[in-house]
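Tokens as discussed.
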């Protein structure tokens, strides 16, 4: 039995097959621009940028350390250290600590007299944790996490 509904379904099926066939045929060919340039990925998300660090005018947390100034940017994406006119990034959001815990964002920073840095961070599972960076500036160590048993 032939109905207008079947004709519409048959037309949609044919249109879908033609669209898929055309996209497969055109996607299989490598397209090159003028001068045969190839595309490359220069920077991925989470990689340090190959440029000078720029920081906005707002900060989330500031602390003074014996060897410089520590601060977290307003978006909570990184912990910076300014020392002798040089700006360094100590921790990025997305970095993993010594225990493997990933840092989602940074909240507050404090510095000890011996050069130890402590910071409050938000983890991907929405818990907060305190991390410690020793004077030797190794990986951040997880000190305590909300809902951990002590």
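Sequence:
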């Amino acid at each position: 039995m032939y109905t207008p509904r079947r004709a519409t379904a048959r037309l949609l099926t044919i249109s879908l097959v033609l669209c898929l066939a055309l996209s497969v045929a055109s996607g299989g060919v490598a397209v090159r621009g003028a001068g045969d340039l190839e595309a490359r990925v220069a920077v991925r998300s989470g990689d340090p940028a190959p440029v000078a660090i720029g920081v906005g005018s707002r900060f989330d947390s500031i602390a003074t350390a014996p060897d410089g100034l520590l601060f977290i940017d307003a978006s909570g994406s990184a912990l910076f250290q300014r020392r002798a006119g040089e700006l360094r990034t100590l921790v990025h959001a997305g970095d993993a600590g010594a225990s493997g815990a990933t840092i989602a964002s940074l909240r507050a920073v404090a510095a000890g007299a011996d050069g130890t840095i402590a910071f409050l961070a938000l983890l991907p599972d929405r818990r907060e944790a305190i991390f410690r960076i020793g004077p030797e500036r190794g990986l951040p160590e997880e000190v305590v996490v909300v809902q951990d048993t002590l």
